[in-house]
Amino acid sequence: QVRLVESGGGLGQAGGSLRLSCAASGRIASINAMAWYRQAPGAQRELVARITSDGTTNYADSVKGRFTIYRDNTKNTVYLQMNSLKPEDTAVYYCNSNIRRSDMFTFNYWGQGTQVTVSS
Predict the structure, then answer these.
(1) Residue 27: per-residue pLDDT
(2) Less Cβ crowding at N or C end of the chain, within 10 Å?
(3) Is the dihedral of CA 80, 86, 88, 91 positive or negative?
């Protein structure tokens, strides 16, 4: 069983910072790209940031220069450092990854989501 478990959400203030973590566990052979998505109430889920296995990153225009995605491959963990928070960053944040299991099948996995609320 492969799982993605997020942590680090909560309440932040405008201009402040939060860091999200997402750890993959289970019978994992390798992890490809890892990404963070978010979904605000009444809105569609959107890509926030993505990082490939070799460290290439891309970001949504709305978070460029404020958020940083990075990963620790020794811990099978991806992070999202969120600085200069804005109220419009309020959403449930989801971790997503394509993971090759030890049986060599690759699946796309989602975490359970973590709430981020930014007060003005």
Answers:
(1) 95
(2) N
(3) positive
Per run of 10 residues, the mean pLDDT along the chain (length 120 residues) is 94 97 96 97 97 96 98 96 98 97 94 97
Q: Which two tokens stand for residue 13?
A: 């203030």
C-alpha distances out from residue 63 to 16, 47, 95, Å: 14, 10, 16
Is the Cα torsion angle 83, 85, 91, 92 positive or negative in sign? Answer: positive
Three-state DSSP class for residue 88: helix
CA atoms within 13 A on the CB side of 30: 8
Close Cβ partners of 31 (under 8 Å, ≥ 6 residues apart): 24, 53, 73, 76, 97, 98, 99, 100
Q: What is the pLDDT of residue 3?
A: 96
Nearest residue to 70 via CA among 114, 36, 29: 36
